[in-house]
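Ticket closed. Logging final result for Pyridoxamine 5'-phosphate oxidase.
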Amino acid sequence: MSNDPITVLSESESWDLLGTASLGRLVTNFAGEPEIFPVNFVVQGRSVLFRTAEGTKLFSAVGNRTVIFEADDHNVAEGWSVIVRGRAQLLKTDADIQQADKAGLYPWVATAKPNFVRITPNDITGRRFVFGPEPDHVETVS
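Final structure:
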């Protein structure tokens, strides 16, 4: 690991870290306004899979050309953040739903969430952060 406080992660490292998380944030646009929804999810292949009920989250996810998904984690010494930009698709075919069902994704809240949504990425970026004190400020007077 370098001494740099911020490390840009490779695509593979980003997917590996994303696969260790279970809670993320879906960012969409609804009626011209940004919306953000916490979702529990799993990584399946090179995609993000979540479940939802009917409503604003589902409508805005599949109704936009692009969505953003972010997950992160940290401890006292370091943290990471991964952002996926892509297209959200409501799974409709029996084959797609059966494949998604194999991921073992269950709602955290005791409500029916019958819809599987898969985010297929156009881009994935990740960063690792090493925590520490702010560097000393050096002021120059001219």
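The longest helix spans residues 11-18. No further action required.
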